[in-house]
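Follow-up to my post from last week.
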Amino acid sequence: MPFIPHTEDEVQEMLAAIGAASIDELFDEIPDSLKLSQLDAIPTALSEMEITHLMAKRAQQDGEPTCFIGAGAYDHHIPAAVWQLTTRGEFYTAYTPYQAEASQGTLQLLYEFQSMMVALTGMDVSNASLYDGASALAEAVLMSVRANRKSKSKRVLMPRTVHPAYRRVVRNIVKNQQIELVELPFDPQTGVTDPACLAQYAGEDFAALVIPQPNFFGVMEDVDALTDWAHENGTLAIGVVNPIALALLKPPGLWGEAGADICCGEGQPLGAPLASGGPYFGFLCCKQAQVRQMPGRIIGRTLDLDGKVGYTLTLQAREQHIRRSKATSNICTNQGLMVTAATIHMALLGTEGLERAAAASYQNTQKLVDALTAVPGVEVLFDQPAFHERVLRLPAPAKGVLRSLAAHNVLGGFDLSGDYPELGDAILVCATEKRTDEEIETYAQKLERVIQLQGGVTCGLVPKE
Amino acid sequence: MLIFEQSKPGRKATAQAPLNRADVSAIPEQFRRKQSAALPEVSEMQAVRHYTRLSRKNFSIDTQFYPLGSCTMKYNPRACNSLASLPGLVSRHPQAPASHSQGFMACLFELQEMLREVTGMKAVSLSPAAGAQGEFAGVAMIRAYHDARGDTARCEILAPDAAHGTNPATAVMCGYKVREIPTGPDGDVDLEALKAVVGPQTAGIMLTNPSTLGVFDRKIEAIAKTVHEAGGLLYYDGANLNAILGKVRPGTMGFDVIHMNLHKTFSTPHGGGGPGAGPVGVSERLIPYLPVPMVAKDGDEYQWITENERPESIGRLTAFAGNAGVLLRAYIYARMLGREGMPRVAEYSTLNANYMLKQLQSVGFQAAYPQRRATHEFIITLKKQAKELGVNTMDFAKRLLDYGFHAPTTYFPLLVPECLLIEPTETEDKATLDDFIDAMRSILEEATVDPELVKGAPYTLPVKRLDDVKAARELDLAWMPVVE
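User reply:
Got it. Predicted complex:
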């Protein structure tokens, strides 16, 4: 029997000890009317060899196209040691460190993680993870409403330059608590939230202003001005940041005069493979003053009976298993294993390595933009300082172009026409440090061909052979 | 020693980063950081050695018996990890078009179908990222259902006093008030108390069955009838699904919405605290509200169901498709179990639990519900030992660590004093259970002869008992570089 070690003799011994005639008898408290006879729609068992064949076929079926999509998930190099260590049974098959003395490995690692996130973000404290970037932003919004004692409004300013899926997730999670999300437009020329457009809201009561850096278009927001505006209006500033970009960009703790109050984001670029969107992890950091409003696990350093340093879950009075209906969140299981990978990833890359990965991604995206805008009719939208993503406008329908590119095994970018129809045939492209010059060149050639075939450019260019 | 304390400024002994440092001077000064982030600077070997050593300070399923009640710490088959990590699967971008995702989507679709069958629900969405998010999805659907009918006076969610803390916390996140229902002396929900509080204000009830008390609520059909007649819906917390997998279906019990914890019942790794996955299943009337994305099959082709196809959906709860890699591991496990393996999960986990309960009783421990069958887990109460010997549940738990066993869940559920909630799972053999029972007997002897010995435990772990009060009062949550 797969995964069940009992021999028939043992079963009989155990039943005899219990005083039951059969295993079925152990279910005698369940009303017969509820009992199930068969599971017809479930296939019969596969051996390890058979499931291996099946999964190999499925994996192969999806191919391995060259990926120029970012849009919230980034294809960075992951050192070989990261997952070899992370999948050690002692990390992989432990659970939430409720018994601290028997979980010092996980606990110390999480304390190191919190320390690394504090170093990257310039905030005072970090929790030990949430589900992903989008749900972390939802938790940050809920937290800001609890934490902002000056505000009575339950209103939060949400720029349209925040990832559209994040905005949906936030709305879905906070709406039942009567929190209102007020959308801020972006400047159609620059692609950033114009601090001037906030003027109309001066004096109004908002719990928080969300500030993405870089924003969904890859463009840098004027985070200093936005943070200062928030604070002048009694509003908390919530940064949404990319942890790889933070190796180069000003940390949220130093935005404006006083720094952001909360920052959160998607941890995937730190050691998690793309893997169809998960598991990733969300991170959330804040100022010391807000630590008791934080959701999720937090690890603290303390001493044992002999005065030896050790690590333990702390501030548990915020959490559901203690506080129940008055908890800061319902979260229980978080993304521990992904944080294990992220911690090892950051330790292996170190300060210099993370900066190089960020710089190379920045440079590759520049190269990609240069190569693609050399294709007639392709232009950059929002020609502003950007990190490793860019919006391009195509001279042909974006959907069709992306579909044709995919047929040639190139994932050419994220189609913006659904979420931002006003941008026309715009796509969001990304080249991390993993994309080679050759891959970029191939993409540009294929794009040129596809656009010509779609009749996007009608200036009489002859298709190249 | 922390990784930071092994760091030397200027060490760049890493092959993992790009060889050169690209020029970023075109990024205007105002956006750039002036001081580098103080991450550790160590060699590859230092990092590998450090984290290998740290890992050895953990108890885990791979190294110890881990009978943590309500957490289903069963063996995690290695094939689930290696096959979910095949290059074509781990490199798939979440925004890759369906044309390049058919293999992945086939796995998700088949997992949806298998979960639908084994739970008896009408439809399943896999997207919630963990049990608590599954709970959120479930209660949000209950709310969406009542709202769509204009039935907006329903402001209350009922939950037994034995419920997981996530239940009341979730109800509040969905904008509900929570009312606790007491448990009767036999461990079943107090039906009369329930009848007294249901009414037009009842949106629904959140139940775990078997409950966290380790017993199957025999009056579940009456509970369902009572709540349904009042216009409320029934929510099933799937934390204990392992106990009834393939034996009883929540759909048959009358539940309208359920979540499953795939990291429990479907053996995906617990990972030191996640990732989990919390798919939800619903009865007919809640189908329009299921969270997205889901996978549909049209002929031979798999398609995504998104907000566009399901305008009444409670929407998405993570940016992409939830914890996809966890779903793949659960899929592989489910295929290896097959239809014949699923009921065996319930059977052998129940056999193990009842055997342990009997043996622990025979060596002097007191069952919380001695007149009841154990399900896949059970509770013993150390009330007597705490009173007579001055040795409490936490002392027993810590001493177990010295014997090489992870402790069971302690002090939960809250209504049983000095309790240990013990869940052996089906993957443990009799010899391991016997060793644990021996250890418990031995600790009971120690507690009788030399209570101080037990109260000072553990002695053999990397640290002794930690000062939790100090941890919470003098917060030290991050390492800070020493300023010289």
